[in-house]
Write the structure tokens for this entry.
Amino acid sequence: MRWLGEEPDESVWAKSRGLDQALPLYPLVRHLLDTAAMALCLWDRYLSESQRRVIAAGMGLEGEEERARALVGLCGGLHDLGKLSGFQFCDARGRDGLSGRLTGDVGKIGVERLPHDVAGMEALPAVLAALGLGGEDERDVVGRLAEVVGGHHGRFSSLEWGRLGGSAHSELLGGVSWARQRVVHAAAVCGALGDPRLPGEFKGSAGVLVTGLVILADWLVSQEHYLRGRQRSLGVSLEQHFAFSCRDAEGLLEEAGLACADLERRGFAEAYGIGGSPNALQQSVMEDFSSVVGRGAGAGIMLVTAAPGDGKTESALEAERVLSGRCGTRGFAFLLPTMATSDQMHERVAGVVARQGGRGAGLTLTHSMAWLSSAYADEELAVGFPVLVGDGEGQAGRGSRYQAEMRPRRWLRGAKRPLLAQYVVGTIDQALMAVLPARHNALRLLALSGKTFIVDEAHAYDPYMQVLLGRLLNWLGAYGVPVILLSATLPVSVSDRLIKEYLRGAGQALSELKMRSFRAPYPGWLYVDAVSSKCHEISEGSRKAQSAQRRMDLDVRVEPVGPEPGRERLAVIEGLLEPVVEDRGCVLVVCNTVPEAQSTYRHLKKRFFPRGVEDGELALLHARFPGDVREARTLEVTRGMGRGGPRPRRRIIVATQVVEQSLDLDADLVISDLAPLALLLQRAGRCWRHEGHWARLGRPVGERPAWAVRHGPRLVVLDPLAGTGSVPPQWGTVYAEFLLAETSALLAERAGEPVVIPDQVQELVEAVHGDRRDRFDWDRPPARSAAWAAHVGDALAQRGVADMVAIPRARSVTSLGSLHHLEGSEDEWELSTRLGADSVRVLCIYQQADTALTFDAEGRLPLPGPGPDGRMGIQDVRAVMKRTVPVRADWIDRSNETHQVPPDWADHPLLADLAVLRQPVHDGQPQPVVVGGKQIWLDDELGLVRR
């Protein structure tokens, strides 16, 4: 170790809370050495080859990764140097234990409040100068190192050089003795790391990754059980302590579930657990794409286009196995638009990873309610998950066998940690937080930069989210991360913007990109190399083969609906379902709003149950059921209508947009309210979805009814514009009026002409959703032009807001402080990945005549309360949260005490934010509650009703 004539003063402490009070507090110098050791271990064992390469290049150290490794260790070892400041006085025991030379030389500590992260940032330039590092020509590098130190608590600050220098500023952190100890502590770290020399440069994007790694290292060595163990061996020398820290770091990494595992790559059928051979699209990815990457193409962005149900997921995972080997990434993040689709994908991915020997790998499910999933439903959930403390819960029989086998380690379940796992499935929102000025965005970028990045349903995001996704792709391009986008109905204008954002991050000139357009074959794939921007795509032979395998002539029939007798919407639906009632069959009815789905279900039940339709043959599914009820209904609805059967004799499913994405449904007929064309095609993807598969490999028990065979796959569109010329007022702003009008007009022009899937899908999507210069025409009806202007104006406004809140593009970062450019605390709850998506979770409970509150109207299930230790048990919290329903935030005023949670729940971090709907029970019957002039109640059959 390097002492500079004196040793580090071990009365200076770093950790006190949760430690053994009979032993000394944990010395700062030892915590710095712990963190340095863990940073080295993370470099060796956690970072991917590509991440190490990017960090080294960002320091100007290509080919000198050992130097980059030591510098990363140095950043970790210096991160808490700012605790040699007023921080030492925030704990009475720590303050009283300080040595006399420090307490007698406090300078102006306390005159200005400086958090220790900022104190460390501002102290670092003088410390490095005292060690002979950081001359005038290294000022930019020193500034970047200081920003990394200042950002280790998740928020970057800008270093103001004008504040530094001179005794006045120095004394804010203590007198000469304090300044000397900061140098001595830093010297101990430098000596342990072999006195690394500063690099010639340190780019901002690399600084973000190093900061994320420092945060992670600090968290790992700050765990209570680890510190209490090290507290018992404080008598060893600092050299021995650092050696022990290096020895123990790998165990901490593995315990946290962060050690990476290599998969044993299996054949296609075995890996994905499906019968038969890959289709033409999948085969092309396995053979053609593999040879393209093998010829020298490196990281890049891939777009896979195919109709719903054509195996895009397997295509993406096959591409990932190729790219991970070529680009040096380890694992993948598979992101989807909703929690429901994420839950389903997690089960599929768990099987894929487990079947390839990945049971030791970390696999997490990440979204705001992921802890309710069976993936986390074991007795270890409460431990290491700070928001839930209490007894555990077993969930035998829930979730798949592979989900149980692939449950993540406890540490990975903590707040902000799931993205750090080797394999991640979750909502896109969790990734988009990386490019918002939220605390710990550097940690999210670290987590994503070492994995292949897969985005499913890439068409499902509005302009605001598209900008955020583009900004994230820009950063991933700068980091050399391979990206895979999947979509059935993505307009070229959107995919083009996303691809160009990625290439800009990779270093391509904007002026050159403006002259190019990147159009993917449909069905097929396009791959654009990040370095050369050279394009590779599916061969025409493979594209035609995929089209032939999947070809379906979809009969699209438009039914005008309106107030005229016989053309009422419900009457038309009833007539279309007559063959199902008279005979048999499976039909999907998709409504644009929950109230319309509820009223449609009530009408059909009233008309069809007297005619022999039974319970279970008519089902309702939407997002306003309590979580546990919705999960059970989804399983019930999909049972038998997937690829494996057996197919029910009769089933009518009335649903909302929840069925548009990733639900495995095969209907004989799809009936849909008018929606933008891309969404109609998504809904139509549930019509005869598995016919091609069954034709090749055999049909499950249950044939299609004769009436369905006669007319073939059919989508019936209920069009109010064709019937009345206007959008129903109850639809509100669910969809842009312009897109509805364009879709209605296009369907009228086609006059019953079938849609050839997949050949005509992209053409039709572009006709309605693409960028066309003829959209605005002074000769068109004024209402049509006004609708277009409103649509474009809304899109521009959304993009403008997203540009305003997002962090800068990767290559334009000069100061890391720009990653937290908005005023305020930058907590995640203050920012939104979805514009206008404010919502609240409502818990519907029942108030009995004796004022008791219960889960059920009968009064048999009382609300849970805290246990003897004053804490809510995890099983009770889960029981509460599974009964909640997400609704718009403006439905219920949570400041009204009648909608606030019971006092015993008020301090719980999850339960406190709920809105409570207390339904009074009179004569055994629950009554509606009037809120904001509307009646609201929870109906067993209909879900949450608001009228």
In short: The two ends are 74 Å apart (CA to CA).
